Amino acid sequence: MNVVAGIDIGGTKTKIGLVNQQGESLVQTFFRTKDYPDLDLFLEKINSTISELKNQTSRDTNLLGVGIGAPNASSKRGTIENASNLVWKGSVPLLEKLKEKINLPAKLMNDASAAALGEMLFGDAKGMKDFIVVTLGTGFGGGIVANGQLIDGYDGFAGELGHIDLTLGDGRLTGLGVRGGLEAYVSATGLKRTILYMLCKYNEESRFRSIAYNDLHGEEITKAAEEGDPIAIKAFEYTGKILGFALANFTAFTQPEAFFLLGGLAGSDKWIFEPTKKYMDTYLLDIYKGKVKLLPSGLQDKNAAISGAAALIWSEFKN
Amino acid sequence: MNVVAGIDIGGTKTKIGLVNQQGESLVQTFFRTKDYPDLDLFLEKINSTISELKNQTSRDTNLLGVGIGAPNASSKRGTIENASNLVWKGSVPLLEKLKEKINLPAKLMNDASAAALGEMLFGDAKGMKDFIVVTLGTGFGGGIVANGQLIDGYDGFAGELGHIDLTLGDGRLTGLGVRGGLEAYVSATGLKRTILYMLCKYNEESRFRSIAYNDLHGEEITKAAEEGDPIAIKAFEYTGKILGFALANFTAFTQPEAFFLLGGLAGSDKWIFEPTKKYMDTYLLDIYKGKVKLLPSGLQDKNAAISGAAALIWSEFKN
After folding, report:
1. Best exposed site among A56, B45, B69, B252 by fewest CB in 10 Å?
2. Domain A128-296 superfamily per CATH
3. Which CATH architecture has domain B131-296?
4. pLDDT band at A178; cut points 50, 70, 90
5. What single string gives the DSSP state of each residue in A215-266?
6. What is the number of CB-based contacts under 8 A between chain A and chain B?
7. A139 pLDDT tier (thresholds 50, 70, 90)
8. Does residue B137 sit at the A interface (CB-CB below 8 Å)?
9. How close, in Å, is residue A140 to chain B by CA atoms?
């Protein structure tokens, strides 16, 4: 059976799985990215992990290649550049170094772009020519498909939607020092910051008055909203308003048929989807109204990041 | 000799020319769009005008087809929809009706998208795979090319960049009733509105204190800036700041290699290019800095709108 190794490099974990042609990860594992500050040792760990996974599958498993998704990755250069959440600094020639160790087709791409390819191959964007995947995790990523193709950009850095600033340079500071960048509002971290904002703005009682910022976790905010905590509910409404406003604006750019939300914050279900949809519909231009879908990713159940990374290679074998 | 009829439908004038394979308009003319509120009469006028132009050329002139650029046009539907500056209201099936009268290949496209095709075929974007043409006339239009292809969007309304709102819904009202839309700031009309804003904000003397808004023309503002009028200079600085900020944000979307500015406001040369470049460079993310060009359209000398419209057909004949 043919498989592709799908690798998702994140700030905390590096996840690896062997993925079949249906996008299913047959076996997978992870290790802590920060345990490998030396790039060579990291790549050796990748190599040995793939071998271990392969040994866990049947004898006739044939590895077609390696697809990697990572933050701040350039598909055109095969590098990771100045990723604020990763241990390696500056411009990292990841693909070139990996190919020295693994003699197989290998591709690297921005994690959100990989997710968009995954959505097209294995998820709910099958047959769509124009759509955008928005990843809402620690940060905010974008994978843009238009005319049936993934948009790379001039040197592979298209889709950095989390750094789009809708506040004329006068908003919250992001991790990259950009004022007003979307990811300072719409992400797991952004939601936590919005809890602070709401605690400051309103007087209502809330469990969050007894929890320090550093002890705050995204899932707790969803739970609090379920239980009627007014600060949590206001925080989701505000987050959805900004996301809905942003998606309405993105529509005027490439006019997608659908937006797919993926990642931690997308897991808050109606708390994020309902206000986002409401405000997106409010702010959409008339020529777009009723034509843009807001959907959960079809890969939420599957191991989305691993499947997406594997799609980089599987997309070469389609038909 | 083979030619294509290039037609630019504008709120004031409809321009028609016969364009050769080099993008040069050999003969051209115009008539007033508003003189033809009846669509059938308008299309007959188009038809007769093309015949007249053809009679002005040599006998061996062979008309390959008709390309049309218009505001709010959908290339996928062949319609013009709710164009606020045109006489025909609602959804206008222009292409279908035209084909009843003219038995030739015909295409319709948003005027800014047509300009982008023109820039790729006849202008300074030859060989570029990723660029954006921004048209700065009465409004603000966008034509986006990515992966070497024009981006149409789900039903042909991509590139409505003038309606992107960078003020979180709290800015000037555009003609379409959108708050904060870019075209309320960066366009011939936007510049005039900014003159009012500057007259209101500052106390300096200015020739514009003696001119009513309705008597104000864009070229006068450029002339005033040349002569040192402080309100005109501040207005250009402000316009360039918002445009530069917008282009920096657009870069995070499809990462173009270059932006081309076209249209009336682009004719203000350094008064618009210098502040736009300065602020674009200020606001660009580090991964993009030094990689994005800001250029005047290579079609400014040619009859840009006519050439762009003709490119719709000529692009079918390139190898």
Report:
1. A56
2. ATPase, nucleotide binding domain (3.30.420.40)
3. 2-Layer Sandwich (3.30)
4. confident
5. G--HHHHHHHHHTT-HHHHHHHHHHHHHHHHHHHHHHHHH--SEEEEESGGG
6. 141
7. confident
8. no
9. 12
